[in-house]
Specification:
It contains 8 helices and 10 strands. It has helices spanning 34-41, 73-85, 89-92, 102-114, 135-144, 183-195, 209-218, 233-243; strands at 45-50, 58-60, 64-70, 96-101, 124-125, 130-132, 152-158, 177-180, 202-208, 227-230. A hairpin with a 3-residue loop joins strand 2 (58-60) and strand 3 (64-70).
Length: 249
């Protein structure tokens, strides 16, 4: 991705609704400072399946096991229902839905990896989580790319050089690169750009969360440290609207 510095006037985006900070040490070759990557993930609430003791239920691959990460509660509910119908005891007997910050999930899994813990099936634990996207956002993503797979992330680019938009916000001392997990949440920013006469110069583009995370783990370009994720408005309403009181960490 091409990162040329293109700023606009201050935009109070989300007003720090999900302001939080986490610290962790990953056993992966992350070129950026670990704290930078964690800060980026600390604004992303996700849903996972846990057992009665609160331990994440894992999905097994050929040689590794990793948590299933749902971008919305409905996806986790549908998964449990399907597991019960298929009589999959590993996920149906005592599975519960928990809400956790994505950065915190990385921390917990990383701590287990460092301690030599293995999954229930004896396979190594992995930080390559298995993401299950929001159905609604995936449907919107298909309008940009019918063959898209993964967790949709929407960004704003300048048409002339394909560079990503940077903005100033009330809660950040430096410009940020906003990335949206919900197309609706992007709309106020698009409205502001239109007011500033930039509507013809920009367009909405689609990337996957998985590809962005892969880049963060490989790049030494500090510009990527400017990325900030903005979560789904439906998920925020779900969690902070009183529906997640028993699940929240």
């Amino acid at each position: 991705m091409n990162f040329l510095s293109r700023g606009i006037a201050t935009v109070g985006l989300l007003g720090g609704v999900l302001a939080t900070s986490l610290t962790l040490g990953l056993q992966r070759a992350i070129a950026l400072e670990t704290e930078t990557v964690v800060e980026q993930l600390s604004t992303v609430p996700v849903f996972i399946l846990v057992d009665s003791a609160g331990n994440p239920l894992l999905a097994s691959g050929e040689s590794e096991e990793a948590p299933l990460v749902f971008m919305e509660r409905q996806g986790a509910e549908a998964f449990i229902a399907a597991a019960q119908e298929d009589e999959n005891a590993a996920f149906s007997e005592d599975a519960q839905i928990a809400v956790i910050w994505l950065g915190d999930l990385y921390q917990r899994t990383s701590d287990q990896i460092q301690s030599g813990t293995t999954g229930p099936d004896g396979r190594s634990l992995s930080l390559d989580f298995i993401y299950v996207p929001s159905f609604n956002q995936l449907r919107l993503a298909s309008q940009f790319n019918e063959e898209f797979s993964g967790v949709p992330v929407f960004v704003v680019r300048f048409n002339d050089d394909d560079s990503l938009l940077t903005i100033n916000t009330q809660n950040e001392p430096e410009p940020i690169i906003p990335m949206f997990l919900d197309l609706q949440v992007m709309q106020p920013l698009l409205d502001r750009l239109e007011e500033q006469g930039l509507a013809e110069q920009i367009s909405v583009s689609l990337v996957s969360l998985e590809s962005v995370l892969d880049t963060l783990e490989e790049t030494s370009d500090e510009t990527y440290g400017q990325i900030r994720f903005f979560p789904s408005s439906d998920v925020v309403t779900d969690i902070f609207g009183g529906n997640a009181g028993d699940d929240a960490e």
